[in-house]
Amino acid sequence: MSNEVRIPKVGSHHGTVASYVIGFVLSLIFTLVPYYLLVHKTFGKNALIVTILVFAVLQMAVQMLFFLHLGREKKPRFNLAFLGSTVSIILLIIVGSLWIMSHLYHGMSAMNVTDKVVTDEAIYQVNGVQAGTCPGGTGKNYEVMMMDGRVTPDHIEAHVCDTLIIVNHDSPTRNIIYGSGNNTETYAGQPGPSIPRGQSAAISLTEPGTYTFHDKTLSTMSGAFTVTQK
Amino acid sequence: MKEFWLGRLSLHALPHEWFTIGGTIGFILMPLVALAILIRIKGWKWLWGEWLTSVDPKKIGIMYFIVAGFMLLRGGLDALMVWLQQALAPSTSVLGAAHGYLSSDHFQQIFTAHGNIMVFFVAMGFVFGLINYIVPLQIGARDLASPFLNTLGFWLYVGGVVMVNMFFGLGGEYAATGWLAVAPLSETQFSPGVGVDYWIWSLQISGIGTTLAGINFIMTILKMRAPGMTLWKMPLFTWGSLCSMLMVVAIFPLLTATLFLMFFDRYLGMHFFTTALGGNAMMYTNLIWMWGHPEVYVLVLPAFGVFSEVVATFSRKRIASYTSQVVGMLGVTLFALSVWLHHFFTMGAGGDVNAFFGVMTMVIAVPTSVLVFGWIATMHKGRIRFSVPMLWFLGFIGIFALGGISGVVLAVPPADFQLHNSLFLVAHFHSNVIGGVLFGIFAGINYWFPKIAGFRLNERIGKNAFWCWIVGFCLSFIPMYILGIMGATRRLDHYDASTGWQPFYIMMFIGGLVIAAGVALQIIQVIASFLQKRRLADLTGDPWDGRTLEWATSSPPPSYNLAAIPEVTTRDAFYEFKNQGGLPKTQYEDIRVPYNTASGIYIAGFAFATCFAFVWHIIWLVVVGILGIIVCVIARTFNDNIEYTLTAAEVEKIEEDRKKRTESQVLEDGEDMSVWEFMKIAIVWALGLIGFKRRVHGN
Amino acid sequence: METEHEPKGHEAASDDRVGFGFWVYLMTDLLMFTVLFACFAVLRNNTFGGPTGRELFSLPSALAETLILLTSSFTAGLGMLAARLGNKRQVLGWFGVTFLLGFVFLVLELKEFVTFVYDGNTWHSNASLSSFFTLVGTHGLHITFGLLWMGVTLAFIWKRGLDSHLVRKLTLLSLFWHFLDIVWIFIFTVVYLMAFLV
């Protein structure tokens, strides 16, 4: 065993047991306090966020002072200068990225257009925010058949976020028109679909109420659906 | 079984098109042949012992120059190919291409490779070569802080160079995504081949080498200056290098992290930047430009440092305001980190964000201008010598200013919405990179060549080369500015003749040929200077009447630079010593010299193997590579025997020997040879080769 | 082993340089983590319908990991004090404890990862989990390399005894270890604690 160890001046520290113990105890406190504050929901959300971040920064400072012995090197204090610059750059990167990325999201399109696309296509989430009126996908499917000039069943009772599927088992193409007249009314922003022979169309039932529909050429071929909130 | 050993490698990966066959011959086989010839002439032991395992920053600097020079040829060829395609596109269709002579995919790979090679392997290589050679001499140090990190950084850089060339021989495709491989185009969904993987790893391995070198240079400049040389007495090239290296350590970690994230998306199916499952491709653009913008300042700050030295020396005056120069460089360094969004004004962050970054971008023109006015003020009332380095500086002023002004135009977000990704942008950044970085490198090489080689470069041919570059640059890039404003987008592999753009593109290609002539002349300049070594020799070590410490050594310096490190009291330390009648009397002392080491080569070799294994999904090789790196690092870092002592007596003997040799040399008389004289010599030599063969076979 | 010929000043200067250089390296490592933190901040809620951190994380487990790593940082510090006094036995003791605590930390972290993967919440599932696994996993990888470094250095100390070169290595290693604990403070705060707030 060598006892002639020269004390290397790496990082220039003169730590003592006391400094490490103080650092350790303070760090323990700065870890446990925010933990318990959070678990017991002592403050409101925003206050808690600020609090736990402040404690994190405090603990970092404690560890830098007591474990890393920062600031005790002799001049020029390059280590401290580099740390300060790095922390500034870190803030620039994090704050800059968050600022830019959130603005990019808001600039994606006019919000009403985004809302419409999201609703129509039942998109679950945009930029981490739950969107659309039908979370977790759609609900039940209700099938309605168009055959031999009749709609079977001619009335459907469904809930918001269910899907109405109209199947055309008839020979000609069936053009669905909402309402009773020949005006192009819409349901949930969309006009009625045109369904070729043997095909089907799916309608997301996102708006509550009772609606009728009929075929464009054969107005007696009609049906209705009632959509209620869950 | 085959899949286990070879991953995704197959016979199909070998070259089988004209493009890849040509590339293999030009960039893989030819350098290997050149290397083989070198080994045949000088021997492997010489190459390995004197150069490859050397930790002397002077030798490493020269190796950087050689590799960067070779890559300049490839990058330039890429540029000519792009211009040729664009000049031919509306009217030609050959070699199986729909337009011009290149398929769209090849064209995209060529401009991607051009960008990567020029930024990472040419500019960074030359800059590191200069810093390695000159900074220790300028600050009176013997070596860098860590000779081992120096050689490791160099070999990692070489690993990147090999990787960016090897796709010709294995794989046949490079990234076709533009030099920054923006997501989601670079994701597996849209770029399923190995091209983007080669891109990732060539940048990653050389990027890590750069970071290590940056740390090394910072350690050296901050901790190893001559006694008495405070930061405010350092030469300005050292300041430029310091600012550049500070930026390197600030931003290359960002690149490393971003490349890893792209790697995770492609290999591990993660979703950072994908189009589905929550990924955000715009975040990639954000991150990559956080690196990408400061990178250009990394390249240009050492060039600014070169110009500070050159202007002062060739105006025979000290720099007009040292403080302004330092403040200017620091100002550029500081602001460079807060402008990155100007590369994606059009991505849609809105008015507030765009305004902030637009203003910051304009602000950065201020410290840059401080530097430019400082140089011009230095010239004022100086006794200017229009030698080649000074000519490069004057060329820089014109072209870089043009680039700077067009940059301020682009900094205005509404203007940028029209000009983003147009040829105006391309002309802007080439004006800055060629006018600033490349001309700075050329000035530096011409300025310090006598120190490095022991003889100066041919002035006549140097001036010819300079004028070719200026004329070629104007022919190429002024039409480019105009085309950009007319609406031409960048990276077009074809366009309709009815746009009326073709004459401009043809002019750009001709300009490119003139630049190529300039490069050819630079190569001729070097060869011609070799041929006239004795006429151009630098016997004093101070051919330009320099002002800084590197001129105090002999040309070339001994391995330990200065026999005794003087105590410095002023700026322009060497100039001061000359005024006082010379350097203080040499007190010889023992010198600790690091041993050569192959550990840099071994670690870089294992790193290269790991990267190659990642490209081809060869898992066993990944494991072997990583283990190899770990074992070699442990072997090197736990090895305590890494230096030996050169005793004072030995140093004295080396100095005496050299003095005797220099004193016996006589400078040959006569003029620098002209291009035409060189051509005559070359033709006679070539004929001699043929003639010799004829003599053997004929009689 | 080589004996020193050069004057004390030279080796002190060399240690100062190396220490500073290593500090600069730590700064670059911090910046690399910053990119990972930035991605996590931007992508943390992009769960694409999958479970959020609030539903996945176990705060008690994260607290345990935090306290274990903090303690290991403390014992590393005590080990450094012993190293400076040349006390080989104490060095091996304290750093041995540090190694064990670090190892337990890794085991707990791996256990968490395995649980997530077993339940189908992998890094392919969505951007939020990709950034979680990358940020926390990269820290874990650094801890692994730290343990490897520690093991090798302790082995050399055990065989060769303490000397100035090995003490220098321990100094750099303890710098690295303290720095990893500081990064973990922010992972604990931003990843685990904040999952219950945002």
Provide keyphrases for this structure:
heterotrimer, A: 230 residues, alpha+beta, Immunoglobulin-like, 5-stranded mixed sheet, 4-stranded mixed sheet, 4 helices, 13 strands, elongated, disordered N terminus, B: 699 residues, mainly alpha, two-stranded antiparallel ribbon, 23 helices, 68% helix, globular
Describe this structure in words.
Chain A is built from four helices and 13 strands. Chain A is α+β, with helices and mostly antiparallel strands. Chain A folds into two domains: 17-106; 141-228, Cupredoxins -  blue copper proteins (Immunoglobulin-like). Chain A has a five-stranded mixed sheet, with no helix packed on it. A four-stranded mixed sheet of chain A has the order 4-3-6-11, with no helix packed on it. Chain A has a two-stranded antiparallel sheet with strand order 1-2. In chain A, helix 1 (17-39) runs antiparallel to helix 2. The radius of gyration of chain A is 33 Å and the shape is elongated. Chain B has helices at residues 2-6, 18-42, 44-52, 57-88, 104-139, 147-166, 195-223, 236-267, 281-314, 322-336, 351-363, 365-379, 388-410, 413-419, 423-453, 459-486, 502-531, 533-536, 573-579, 599-616, 619-637, 648-664, 675-698; strands spanning 591-594, 643-646. In chain B, helix 7 (195-223) packs antiparallel against helix 20, helix 8 (236-267) packs antiparallel against helix 9 (281-314) and helix 15 packs antiparallel against helix 16. Chain C is mainly α. Chain C has helices at residues 8-43, 53-56, 59-84, 88-118, 127-160, 164-193. In chain C, helix 4 packs antiparallel against helix 5. The radius of gyration of chain C is 19 Å and the shape is elongated. Chain B binds chain C through residues 145-146, 211, 215-216, 218-219, 222-224, 249-254, 256-258, 261, 264-265, 268-272, 274, 277-280, 283, 287, 590, 592, 630, 634, 637-638, 640-641, 645, and chain C through 1-2, 5-6, 10, 13, 16-18, 20-21, 24-25, 27-29, 31-36, 38-39, 42-43, 46-48, 123-128, 130-131, 133-134, 148, 152, 156, 165, 169.
In a nutshell, what does this entry contain?
The complex is a heterotrimer of chains A (230), B (699) and C (198). Chain A contains four helices and 13 strands. Chain A is of the alpha+beta class.
Question: How is the topology of this model organized?
Answer:
The complex is a heterotrimer of chains A (230), B (699) and C (198).
Chain A: H1 17-39, H2 45-66, H3 78-106, H4 111-120, E1 125-126, E2 129-130, E3 141-147, E4 150-152, E5 155-159, E6 162-168, E7 174-178, E8 186-187, E9 190-191, E10 194-195, E11 200-205, E12 209-215, E13 222-228
Parallel strand pairs in A: 3-6, 5-13
Antiparallel strand pairs in A: 1-2, 3-4, 6-11, 7-10, 7-12, 8-9, 12-13
Chain B: H1 2-6, H2 18-42, H3 44-52, H4 57-88, H5 104-139, H6 147-166, H7 195-223, H8 236-267, H9 281-314, H10 322-336, H11 351-363, H12 365-379, H13 388-410, H14 413-419, H15 423-453, H16 459-486, H17 502-531, H18 533-536, H19 573-579, E1 591-594, H20 599-616, H21 619-637, E2 643-646, H22 648-664, H23 675-698
Antiparallel strand pairs in B: 1-2
Helix pairs in contact in B: 2-3, 4-5, 4-6, 4-17, 5-6, 5-7, 5-9, 5-15, 6-7, 6-20, 7-8, 7-20, 8-9, 8-10, 9-10, 9-12, 9-15, 10-12, 13-15, 13-16, 15-16, 16-17, 20-21
Chain C: H1 8-43, H2 53-56, H3 59-84, H4 88-118, H5 127-160, H6 164-193
Helix pairs in contact in C: 1-5, 1-6, 3-4, 3-6, 4-5, 5-6
